[in-house]
Write a structure and sequence with these properties.
With about 250 residues, the protein is an alpha/beta fold. The protein is about 30% helix and about 20% strand. The protein has a 6-stranded parallel beta sheet. The protein has a 3-stranded antiparallel beta sheet with strand order 4-7-6. Helix 1 packs across helix 2. The chain is globular. The relative contact order is 0.19. Bound molecules: 6-phosphogluconic acid. 6-phosphogluconic acid (6PG) binds next to loops.
Length: about 250
């Protein structure tokens, strides 16, 4: 097992979400202490909702330096920001509307122009501006995993896995999971991370979680295996159902 990796299985989804919130709050504080700010990449899916709700509730709400937080997305569906399918909308409703993050520090993926490839290029530019003179770096990435092993919008055997080196953001067409058009950070961008937290819940993920964490390295079949945080830490938090097949 990679020495930068930790795997914890919790008795329930609620306990997992609570632990995730506590760990992420601590990681935000650490990043702000070390670097003066914290860049966090959010994800979609249903699992992060309860995690967000715990971040914005006492006591964590008071402990998090919200004004030093910069929010980006690991991926989003190519739908308007007010669409029920929008990952941005979910984060706004469950997290961002409830805390004092300066508006200019929230960078949703642009998902309404006609050309997703141009939107991806525009977001890439925003990320370089955010990084300034430094190399692009994410302090904390919140990741999910689907039963097919996808993470962010990186799907098994999909052309999105072959993004040109150095590219941070790509447009995805023909996603096997609807909606078909999406924007996603690339594997390379997601691995420029201090701590990647995978939050995984549900029995439909248990076999894939076992294969990703303990099976052979076949990342093209199980893209979650591409996320290794080589210069940081990899933390997998699972509920009992998702972790059932782990030894
Ligand atoms: C998407 C979702 C997806 C999600 C995983 C896990 O855009 O289709 O964001 O990538 O993160 O499928 O979802 P759950 O948390 O609902 O299990």
């Amino acid at each position: 097992m990679a020495s930068n990796r930790e795997i914890v299985v919790y008795e329930s989804l609620e306990l997992m979400q609570q632990a995730a919130a506590e760990r992420v709050a601590a990681a935000i504080q650490q990043a702000v202490t070390a670097r003066g700010r914290c860049i966090i990449a959010l994800s979609g899916g249903s699992t992060p909702r309860g995690f967000h709700q715990r971040l914005v509730a006492a006591p964590l709400r008071e402990q998090i330096p919200w004004e030093q937080l910069y929010v980006i997305w690991g991926d989003d569906r190519y739908v308007p920001h007010d669409d029920p399918e929008s990952n941005y909308r979910m984060a706004r409703e469950t997290l961002l509307d409830h805390v004092p993050i300066p508006a200019e520090q929230i960078l949703p993926m642009p998902t309404s122009a006609d050309d997703p490839a141009q939107a991806a290029a525009g977001y890439e530019q925003q990320l370089h501006l955010l990084a300034g003179d430094a190399e692009f770096w994410i302090d904390i990435a919140i990741m999910g995993m689907g039963p097919d092993g996808h993470t962010a919008s990186l799907f098994p055997e999909h052309p999105g896995l072959d993004a040109p080196a150095g590219q941070l953001v790509i447009a995805i067409d023909n996603s096997p999971k609807p909606p078909p058009r999406r924007l996603t950070l690339t594997i390379a961008a997601l691995n420029q991370v201090g701590t990647a937290f995978f939050l995984v819940s549900g029995a439909d993920k248990s076999e894939m979680a076992k294969d990703v964490l303990h099976g052979p390295a076949e990342p093209r079949r199980r893209p979650a295996q591409f996320i290794q945080a080589p210069r940081g830490r990899l933390v997998w938090l699972l509920d009992a159902a998702a972790g059932a097949a782990l030894s």
